[in-house]
Amino acid sequence: MISSISRARRWLAVAYLAVVVIATWQRGFISREHTTFPIFRQSFVHLSAHQDLYASYPLEQGPAAQDLFKYSPTAAMLFAPLSSVPFLAGLFLWNLCNAGLLFFAITRLLRGNAANMALALLLPEVLTAVQASSSNALVAALMLLGLHWIARGKQAPAALMIALGAAIKIFPLAVASVAVTRGDRWRFALAIALSGVVVLALPLSVVSAPELAAQYQSWHALELKDAGDVDFGMSFIRAMRAFWATATPNWAFQLAGTLLVLVPLLRRDRWQDASFQLHFGCSLLMFAVLFNHQAERQSMVIAATGCVIWLNSRAWSWRLAALYGVALTGASVLPYAVLWLVMQHELLAGDLAVAPAAWRARIVRHLTPARVAACRACCMPVSRLRWTCVDCRTIAPAWPYYGFPELAVRFAAFVLLADEVTQGHFIFGWNLWDLVQPIS
Predict the structure, then answer these.
(1) What's this model's pTM, rounded to 2 decimal places?
(2) I need a labelling partner for 315 at 20 to 30 A (CA). Which of 114, 243, 397, 406 fits?
(3) Distance between CA 62 and CA 56 in Å, rounded?
(4) What is the pLDDT of residue 144?
(5) Cα 151 from chain centroid?
């Protein structure tokens, strides 16, 4: 059994390496018109030359200057090794770092066939992300490694992984909220504060303090400008805005999403549950993309990473896997949104029967009254979805029942799938049929 798992892991490693080689060939040999990697590569050159990182450089970014460097000055510092090697070698190392580190991170969180299945399910999204020379696979890997070290009580490496991820994109900081569920949360807060100071100050090795302050001011101005963009991106925010035909600003949706993603923390009785911590981390990965107004197609690898970790660390469901398959088409962000809502529901509901009696009574009164009932034999609270009572082992302790969350999720999934596979899509802007329409 072990040999077959290892054999499959080796083939998956070959597949990930093939993705790296293909993407490097496309962006390094066939054409170098794609500007993402050149922008990353030149960022350290601009930093060391004391130039504004966030200005337009048409010779590198194209005459239209459609993209700019939008990461922190620390990220520009981290790109230094890529600027000192030939272009093709740097591109290969960059792609290998993205795919390889994500491969490694998944094998740290999952074991055996679960890790292999997660790697296989994630491969299409990894290909999309690496082909775009994006940093999203790297960011997902740093977030996973942060979760890995938090679960093992290693504050320093966990804080360093999260701080490095936040230096590239802000939202990896969300993973730090998983530490709230642990008893060493204050030591972790100190560790991440110290790591943040060190990471932010890293560019001081090549620029002066006033120059670094000016770079951070320029970065802040660019981020403020992007925050007001309501037309760009492929986030859940844009889908909701289009559906409701509203001009509601991004921050309002993000505030609502933040409150929603933190709701499972009300289940304090589950804070010490390792699976709860892991699945809450997966929810944060999906939230970071769904409510990021600047999310692009290649950003979905982060949501997909949280999704495949969740799918392979719970009871297997072919319906949820099929919904994930729809998400892989890239036709819409909505399948990931439905999967995230299912995840949130499971985090909040959990298994009430394994909670202490006092917490069970509180949960019955305040959180999920529609999902529980008194056992017909011993009168203890028990989930309506269980076939046996944990206290007295009575079979079918309550009538089978699907509460409102289950019905809502099932209805949302039905509507989504119907919209994706029918030509008369009257709900969302486009669906799978648009992928096969002739080009006019």
Answers:
(1) 0.78
(2) 397
(3) 9
(4) 94
(5) 18
Residue 24 and residue 21: Cα distance in Å, rounded? Answer: 5
Rg, the chain, Cα only = 23
> Do residues 98 and 137 lie in contact, with contact meaning Cβ atoms separated by under 8 Å?
yes
Provide φ and ψ at 374, rounded to 5°.
-80, 130
The pLDDT tens digits of the residues spanning 174-210 come to 888 888 888 888 888 899 899 989 998 889 988 889 8
Model pLDDT, residue 254: 82
Predicted pLDDT of residue 332: 75
160-184 residue pLDDT tens: 999 999 888 888 888 888 888 888 8
Give residue 356's Cα distance to chain centre: 32
Specify the amino acid at residue 45. Answer: V
Separation between Cα atoms, residue 327 and residue 124, nearest integer Å = 11
Structure tokens at 264: 């499972």
Q: Which residues of 347-378 are buried (b: 16+ CB within 10 A; e: fewer)?
A: bbbbebbebeeebbeebbeebbeebbbebeee
Residue 355's SS3 state is: coil
Strands (E), 268-405: 372-374, 381-383
Strands 372-374 and 381-383: antiparallel
Q: Which residue has the higher pLDDT, 383 or 55?
A: 55
Residues 6+ apart with CB under 8 A from 184: 153, 155
Q: Is the pLDDT of residue 64 over 60?
A: no
Q: Helix %, strand %, coil % for the chain, to 5?
A: 70, 0, 30
Closest CA to 136 of 106, 168, 103: 168
